[in-house]
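Researcher: Go.
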Amino acid sequence: MFITLEEFLSKYLGKSKGYPTDSQYPGQCLSICKLYIKECFGIDPPSSGTGSAYGYWSNFPSPLDTVFNKVENTSDLIPQKGWIGIMKPWDSNPYGHIFIVADGSTKSICKNWAQNWTSKVFQLESNKYTYIVGFLKPKDVIISNSDPTMTTEETNIWNFIKTNQITEGQLREGYGYVKDGTVANLTKQIADLNTSQKSLEDRISILESEVKASNDLVASWQTTASNANQKLSKLQSDLDTANTQSNVWKNRYEAALKEQVGKYSAWELIVLGVKSLFKK
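Model: Structure:
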């Protein structure tokens, strides 16, 4: 996993570092730069081939060329934060010097973080450009979006980076995710989640249809029950009417019978009763 320059500085400023371990070449300028290349750019820093810091410029050993371009020092050049500056040897120093460019540099003073300049400790320094031969500039640092050779897609990418203030470290981390398959794995996970979501949505749709069908059936039963209740009420009403009419006719019959019986004498009623017995 790559770290940003800011994370690197927070981790190592004020310390004396060696490379590949703290017990090997501790406090040397090339040690801290190799550590920077390893942790912030994700490549194994090569040997200089000369036993000196200057070899990183004169030999430019592989794989430095996969992440850096060489930029010669000129009187008008102001190096940018994060570049690696290299000094050639001079009479009192046959090894040259190497450092990480800091912000705040001008045409006359190069601000930088380094070991083995005024101290074995990794700290901020200021140097003139007298012995500086050039710089290793990270390839994915875009200086301007005005390059006429940039395609529309490249311009859009640049605008996205600029608008969202994406740092070099974040770009490298993103590249690392693509390279180690993290993005592919995340893409697959997203696709699987989308498939699961679609399956759940289909199931929900089926359940909603089933609920609707059940609700329709319940509504139908409720309508049938309501109609049956209405019919029952009508039948009860008709029955009450029939009972009322039956009582009316019964009362009329009994009254008429009573009136008819009243017309006969006791002897006539006895005779009628005897006749009815013999009729059987």
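Model: The longest strand covers residues 132-138.
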